[in-house]
């Protein structure tokens, strides 16, 4: 079903808290339900042959939340990466992270490093988990790496253009074809600003825990009906 036209889908998984509140539950219950929804979605993405899935798990700005909520999320990440992702590994998913490790708990960093090592030779699909992530911060990190390579003579200025610059980002990923944000808000909240440049955007009212693989399939079907011009003109169709 998926071909070369669609390589990379990114999801801003928003609405866990409101999902829980609507059910009279604690926000943590929403995060747990969100993590289950993500696992189902990621496994489905491999089944339909999507090569890259990026997900916004925790923004650097999310540290503004209560200690209780942040700690719950960090414990949940450890559980996800060290226990729940067995099926993901069996299906040949390579897990990578974008974001900064600075300021993260040691046990969280260990769980992240472990799953990266365990999955590093997998080739069926890549799951890029954005954790302690900000898009502007990623661009600054890339600029710093590029600067170091320039100063050390490892790269020539003329080798770098908007496509090759991606090698300095946290992960060298193809551009995002589809961005999905669940949970009603219509904003990007500092997510993958460099990679989103020609993404088709889908803003869904559904809270993330209720977002299903079928909903993903519907978005993909819609995407295949869109004419992407990348700044050009389709002369056969649009000539007047
Ligand atoms: C997204 O859901 C998950 C994280 C930001 C970690 P929220 O927790 O932002 O849920 P809402 O937006 O408050 O409903
Ligand atoms: C974006 O959601 C971050 C994640 C989904 C991890 P937020 O809930 O933090 O974004 P804002 O505050 O509504 O912009
Ligand atoms: Mg939110």
Question: Describe it for me?
Answer:
With 240 residues, the chain is of the alpha/beta class. The protein has one domain (8-134, 172-224): Undecaprenyl pyrophosphate synthetase, CATH 3.40.1180. It is built from eight helices and six strands, in the order βααβααβαβαββαα. The chain has a six-stranded parallel beta sheet, with helices on both faces. α5 (106-119) links the parallel β3 (93-98) and β4 (125-133). α1 (16-22) packs across α2. The protein is globular. The two termini are 33 Å apart. Bound molecules: 3-methylbut-3-enyl trihydrogen diphosphate (2 copies) and magnesium ion. One 3-methylbut-3-enyl trihydrogen diphosphate (IPE) is lined by residues 13-18, 58, 62, 73, 183. The site of one 3-methylbut-3-enyl trihydrogen diphosphate has 10 residues, from α1.
Termini separation (Å)? Answer: 33 Å
Strand content: 15-25%
Instruction: Please identify the top-level CATH class.
Output: Alpha Beta
CATH architecture: 3-Layer(aba) Sandwich
Q: Which structural class should the secondary elements be placed in?
A: alpha/beta
Say what oligomer this is. single chain
The CATH superfamily name is Decaprenyl diphosphate synthase-like
Major beta sheet summary: 6 strands, parallel
Number of domains as seen in the coordinates? 1
Mean pLDDT, nearest integer?
97
Overall 3D shape = globular
**What is the CATH fold-level name?**
Undecaprenyl pyrophosphate synthetase
Helix content: 40-55%
How many strand segments? 6
Radius of gyration: 19 Å
Bound molecules: 3-methylbut-3-enyl trihydrogen diphosphate, magnesium ion
Secondary-structure element series: EHHEHHEHEHEEHH
Strand order, main sheet: write it out.
Answer: 3-4-2-1-5-6
């Amino acid at each position: 079903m998926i071909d070369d036209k669609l390589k990379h889908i990114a999801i801003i998984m928003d609405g866990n808290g409101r999902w829980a509140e609507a059910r009279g539950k604690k926000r943590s219950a929403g995060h747990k339900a969100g993590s289950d929804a993500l696992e189902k979605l990621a496994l489905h993405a491999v089944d339909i042959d999507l090569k890259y899935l990026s997900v916004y798990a925790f923004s650097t700005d999310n540290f503004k939340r209560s200690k209780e909520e942040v700690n719950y999320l960090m414990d949940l990440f450890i559980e996800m990466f060290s226990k729940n992702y067995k099926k993901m590994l069996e299906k040949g998913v390579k897990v990578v992270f974008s974001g900064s490790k600075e300021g993260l708990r040691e046990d969280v960093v260990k769980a992240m490093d472990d799953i990266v090592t365990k999955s590093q030779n997998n080739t069926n699909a890549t799951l890029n988990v954005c954790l302690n992530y900000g898009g502007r911060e990623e661009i600054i990190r890339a600029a710093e790496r590029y600067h170091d390579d320039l100063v050390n003579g490892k790269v020539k200025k003329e080798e770098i253009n908007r496509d090759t610059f991606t090698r300095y980002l946290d992960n060298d990923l193809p551009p995002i074809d589809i961005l999905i944000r669940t949970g009603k808000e219509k904003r990007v909240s500092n997510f993958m600003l460099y990679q989103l440049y020609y993404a088709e955007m889908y803003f869904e009212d559904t809270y993330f825990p209720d977002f299903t693989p079928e909903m993903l399939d519907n978005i993909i079907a819609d995407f295949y009906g869109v004419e992407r011009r990348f700044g050009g003109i389709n002369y056969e169709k649009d000539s007047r």
